[in-house]
Amino acid sequence: MESLVNLFVRAVFVENVVFAYFLGMCSFLAVSKKIKTAFGLGLAVIFVMVLTTPLNYLILNYMLEEGALSWISPSLASVDLTFLAFILFISTIAGAVQLVEMVIEKFLPALYSSLGIFLPLITVNCSILGTSLFMQEREYGLAETAVFSLGAGVGFFLAIVLLAGIRERLRYSNVPAPLQGLGMAMFITALMGLAFLSFSGIKI
Amino acid sequence: MKPIRNLVESLEPHFKEGGKYEKFHPAFDALSTFLFVPGHTTENGVHIRDAMDLKRTMFTVVIAMIPTLLFGMWNVGYQHYLAYGMDMSLMENFMFGFWRVMPIVVVSYAVGLGTEFVFAISKKHVVSEGYLVTGLLIPLILPVTIPLWMVAFASIFCVIIGKEIFGGTGMNFMNPALLARAFLFFAFPAYMTGDIWTDLTPEPGHALVDAYTGATNLVTFDNDFTQLPSPSDMFWGFEQGSIGETSVFAILIGVFILIASGVGSWKIILSCVIGTLAMGLFLNLLAPVDVPTSSLHTPAYYHLLMGSFAFGAAYMATDPVSAAHTEAGKWIYGILIGVFTVILRVFNPAYPEGVMLAILLMNVFAPLIDHLVVERHIQTRMKRA
């Protein structure tokens, strides 16, 4: 139990997908102009992560890894399908995003139109694929995978909402022309990363 | 004063629009308004004129920092002679520290203001006074042994990356002085941690005393909190540390000036104290009974006295630009600073002192806190309507 709490805290703060691994930068920088939109996208990312990473865990452990297929017939025990991991992970994620998109379009049309192209683009949000791949690389169990995916999602959510808050505050500031918009967001991200460094090395 | 005023007035036409040195108008403006009350009049609309402009506000903060600066100079000398086992008079201690600290202050001001001038000229706005405070904060939160070129480097970094690219004074979302320190801390860890807190320039005829230890209190604190100096030493400031942070007493004088003049927010200072005490007491409950020296056992009020907590809460957390702006937000912001300070101090062996990073982190959270507070206000009003 304690290790699961530790894993969650690490995923949110210490190994934040945005500030420690620079994953998911495109939507992080593009959809962080307003807090409301960032909030919606952050929630969507949490949902997709929590749905897909454990699913990918099951796919990996019961279909792809060497010997994983032996539950069908013992003769398949020597089959190793891990080379399909990328393509299957992405398919799971794409499917989950389709689901989220339909739900948001039906129930939150205002958010749907403000997210625009970035909602379907969650499919290729590298932080989501990255979380699945970290799960594979670090050989987490099912419970760990679930907690880790929630932590990574909350980490992304926190990062994008914080950035949106800062950008809203700086909306009327006199930024040098070449840095307006994206350039400034990059600098803010860098400084936020500096502040998040305070957690590196923390142990609970 | 009269000759200077005449000189300024005679030079003014050259710097006005169409004058020979039009380009340098911001620099001239900064100097002349620094010396004399400007003669500008407003041109449209109704304006409230108040003597308490940005320049006076910043100067009040600078005055509030003078006690810590003076005590810091004395303590630099005191710690130096203590390490060599020499008993010196008050004045000798102070003069030693004066000659060590003054160059850092001068470099910080000269380089930082120089950078501001360059930006003011190229961006054609007036030089603002924000750097008066930042330029004194930077020396006060650095160890006395810091090389001067690093002070210069950090000043340039904090003015450009911390402030100017966001549109100058009043637009920075992080406290520039803290940013300068965090930058040095992560870029040159060898100069910012370890055996650096006392000036160990050799004294002819004297050797280091045997009991001398170079690590700051907070390093030993992680393993065994009983190694900390006595609470009274920590309160008066007879301990090693950054130049301005050691004496809680000197800082309290500054806090009095800040609160009496209304420049610093008492809400933020008080809520920082509450957050720290609450988290300290909470960790006492969790502390393992069989390890009486564990840092979890530290009495909560120790957290207020040791390290740079008092300095950070008084001069950095209250920065009106980077703190939360709403009144309810200030309470949340301050309490979270206290909580994170204690968490980072106790649980993070990589960084012995947590105040700096806790405040930086809360600077990042402050806009979001404000947003949530405002949203909540809107909701309660909507319900009432």
Automatic annotation (TrEMBL), chain A:
The chain crosses the membrane at residues 12-31, 38-59, 79-100, 112-134, 146-166, 178-202. It comes from the Bacteria. GO terms for molecular function: oxidoreductase activity, acting on NAD(P)H, quinone or similar compound as acceptor. It is a multi-pass membrane protein. It is found in: Cell membrane; Endomembrane system. Keywords: Cell inner membrane, Cell membrane, Ion transport, Membrane, NAD, Sodium, Sodium transport, Translocase, Transmembrane, Transmembrane helix, Transport, Ubiquinone. The keyword Transport applies. InterPro entries: NqrDE/RnfAE, NqrDE/RnfAE_oxidrdctase, NqrE. Its main location: membrane. It catalyses: a ubiquinone + n Na(+)(in) + NADH + H(+) = a ubiquinol + n Na(+)(out) + NAD(+). One of its GO terms (cellular component) is Gram-negative-bacterium-type cell wall. One of its GO terms (biological process) is respiratory electron transport chain. Belongs to the NqrDE/RnfAE family. NQR complex catalyzes the reduction of ubiquinone-1 to ubiquinol by two successive reactions, coupled with the transport of Na(+) ions from the cytoplasm to the periplasm. NqrA to NqrE are probably involved in the second step, the conversion of ubisemiquinone to ubiquinol. NCBIfam families: nqrE (TIGR01940). PANTHER family: INTEGRAL MEMBRANE PROTEIN OF SOXR-REDUCING COMPLEX, NA(+)-TRANSLOCATING NADH-QUINONE REDUCTASE SUBUNIT E. Composed of six subunits; NqrA, NqrB, NqrC, NqrD, NqrE and NqrF. This is Na(+)-translocating NADH-quinone reductase subunit E. It comes from Persicitalea jodogahamensis. The gene is nqrE.
UniProtKB/TrEMBL annotation, chain B:
The modification FMN phosphoryl threonine is found at T216. Signal peptide: none annotated. Belongs to the NqrB/RnfD family. It is a multi-pass membrane protein. This is Na(+)-translocating NADH-quinone reductase subunit B. It comes from the Bacteria. Its EC number is 7.2.1.1. Its main location: membrane. It is an enzyme of class 7 (translocase). It catalyses: a ubiquinone + n Na(+)(in) + NADH + H(+) = a ubiquinol + n Na(+)(out) + NAD(+). NQR complex catalyzes the reduction of ubiquinone-1 to ubiquinol by two successive reactions, coupled with the transport of Na(+) ions from the cytoplasm to the periplasm. NqrA to NqrE are probably involved in the second step, the conversion of ubisemiquinone to ubiquinol. Keywords: Cell inner membrane, Cell membrane, Flavoprotein, FMN, Ion transport, Membrane, NAD, Phosphoprotein, Sodium, Sodium transport, Translocase, Transmembrane, Transmembrane helix, Transport, Ubiquinone. GO terms for cellular component: plasma membrane. GO terms for biological process: respiratory electron transport chain; sodium ion transport; transmembrane transport. GO terms for molecular function: FMN binding; oxidoreductase activity, acting on NAD(P)H, quinone or similar compound as acceptor. It is found in: Cell membrane. NCBIfam families: PRK05349.1. Composed of six subunits; NqrA, NqrB, NqrC, NqrD, NqrE and NqrF. The gene is nqrB.
